């Protein structure tokens, strides 16, 4: 046993919110999801136009409320929103006012109505917290620009010299900003006033009724004590709140039980691209995207890597990881594999049957394409004739099976076969084991399945009933899968 990964098999009390293991998340980029028409007087792009860094489509929270039927029909029971607070950017990572939902999204009134409507349907709501940096329009930084060294908020930021140059790229900015972007001045989180302000924001929206926080670039607040107090305050309001950090690499530092519950699982994303998209990877696309270069993987390499990912953290944390195939920071999976819908569907089968909380990026369920930012943030096409009905039906079938089958949410992950382009794994659970077979080859494959409890199983993808014995070989369609759940 690896001494850095102690045996937690005897632990009985979850160290992460128990509901997350049963969650299916839906990520929404608010400006591009749905426009209600209730927010008027705006200069907007036509819905569906080519996304632009500085233009608005005008999606709003009222529009989300109007589309909750669609969201719920996906089997989704939790929504993660990209930032919703007032900002002079369509992505709203440039926060102006942390206590005010952007009026373009409908303001605090719309968020109140959305939370109430979501909770009435059993949907949880997680907001994006951007606490490492603010914006040039943030009042305290604006005061710094206006008053210079005399500003009452001089110590809220990292000032290197005077005068500050917030807009003139030909001269030194004289203040620290996120990756040198002058539009995003970095908070001085060593300042007690700043710490109290950010913690109060976290508490305020928890008391408002949200169910957790997704934390933007939290590793750049390089201070465990800040996040430890953040957790204490959030969990004091709601002990079942979900705190998930955007950490792209190793996250052990933040997953000791005193900071985050889980992280966005990009360790899951890359192997899925590498294996399911091995034949069609668009290397230039990925190299321009957040995922970076991804090289093809064999079944053996994929199985080994995903087994390692499953063992990376405490089992409760693994069950709470946010498993995503793409996001607002990457090219969409479909485009990253050159439009190969079979690769995306196979990856979705794995996502929905693997341990952890799957997260659907809005539009993926109907085949919405998109390259790197801003193209990955296209407007949702609400004309159903434009939808990929096969992908939508597959998504619904998989989420329904996940909710109905304890093994798919709570079972262990055990690979039973991996060779060439075929993988078979089992989710073992006392209520009955599930067996999943994946074939990325262009022809039908006969894959062995071991560890079967003899009996009848239903294939989630076709509805067929199969009778399995201890060593029944599985006939798996070309570029297809079997998801076998126990009957009875």
Automatic annotation (TrEMBL):
Lineage: Bacteria, Thermotogati, Deinococcota, Deinococci, Deinococcales
Top-level taxon: Bacteria
Organism per entry: Deinococcus aquaticus
InterPro entries xref list: GH (IPR017853), GH13_cat_dom (IPR006047), Glyco_hydro_b (IPR013780)
Coiled coil spans: none
Designated name of the protein: Glycoside hydrolase family 13 protein
Pfam families: Alpha-amylase
Gene Ontology molecular-function annotations: hydrolase activity
Domain Glycosyl hydrolase family 13 catalytic, first and last residues per copy: 27-402
Keywords recorded for this protein, A-Z: Glycosidase, Hydrolase
Keyword Hydrolase in annotation: yes
């Amino acid at each position: 046993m690896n001494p850095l990964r102690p045996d937690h098999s005897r632990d009985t009390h979850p160290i992460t919110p128990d509901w997350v293991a049963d969650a299916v998340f839906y990520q929404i980029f608010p400006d591009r999801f749905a426009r209600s028409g209730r927010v008027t007087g705006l200069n907007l792009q036509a819905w569906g136009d080519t996304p632009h860094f500085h233009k608005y489509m005008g999606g709003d929270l009222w529009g989300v409320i109007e589309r909750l039927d669609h969201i719920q029909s996906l089997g989704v029971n939790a929504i993660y929103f990209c930032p919703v607070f007032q900002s002079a950017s369509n992505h709203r990572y440039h926060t102006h006012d942390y206590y005010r939902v952007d009026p373009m999204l409908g303001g605090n009134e719309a968020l109140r109505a959305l939370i109430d409507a979501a909770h009435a349907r059993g949907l949880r709501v997680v907001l994006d917290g951007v606490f490492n940096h603010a914006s040039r329009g943030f009042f305290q930084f604006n005061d710094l620009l206006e008053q210079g060294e005399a500003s009452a908020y001089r110590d809220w930021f990292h000032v290197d010299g005077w005068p500050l140059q917030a807009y003139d790229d030909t001269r030194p900015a004289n203040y620290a900003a996120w990756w040198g972007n002058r539009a995003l001045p970095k908070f001085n989180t060593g300042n007690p006033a700043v710490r109290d302000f950010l913690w109060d924001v976290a508490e305020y929206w928890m008391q408002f009724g949200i169910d957790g926080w997704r934390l933007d670039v939290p590793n750049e607040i390089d201070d465990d004590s800040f996040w430890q107090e953040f957790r204490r305050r959030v969990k004091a309001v709601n002990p079942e709140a979900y705190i998930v950090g955007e950490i792209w690499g190793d996250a052990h530092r933040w997953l000791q039980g005193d900071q985050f519950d889980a992280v966005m699982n990009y360790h899951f994303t890359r192997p899925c691209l590498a294996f399911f998209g091995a034949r069609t990877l668009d290397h230039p696309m990925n190299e321009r995207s957040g995922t970076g270069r991804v090289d093809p993987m064999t079944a053996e390499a994929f199985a080994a890597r995903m087994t390692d990912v499953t063992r990376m953290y405490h089992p409760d944390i693994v069950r709470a990881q946010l498993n995503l195939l793409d996001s607002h920071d990457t090219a969409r999976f479909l485009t990253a594999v050159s439009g190969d819908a079979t690769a995306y569907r196979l990856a979705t089968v794995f996502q929905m049957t693997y341990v952890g909380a799957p997260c659907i990026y809005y539009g993926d369920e109907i085949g919405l394409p998109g390259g790197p930012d801003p193209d990955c943030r296209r407007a949702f096409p609400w004309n159903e004739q434009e939808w990929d009905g096969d992908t939508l039906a597959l998504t619904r079938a998989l989420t329904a099976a996940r909710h109905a089958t304890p093994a798919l949410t709570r079972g262990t992950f055990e690979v039973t076969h991996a060779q060439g382009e075929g993988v078979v794994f089992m989710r073992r659970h006392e209520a009955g084991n599930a067996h999943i077979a994946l074939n990325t080859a262009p022809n039908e494959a006969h894959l062995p399945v071991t560890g079967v409890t003899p009996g009848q199983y239903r294939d989630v993808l076709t509805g067929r009933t199969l009778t399995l014995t201890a060593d029944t070989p599985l006939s798996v369609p070309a570029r297809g899968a079997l998801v076998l759940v126990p009957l009875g």
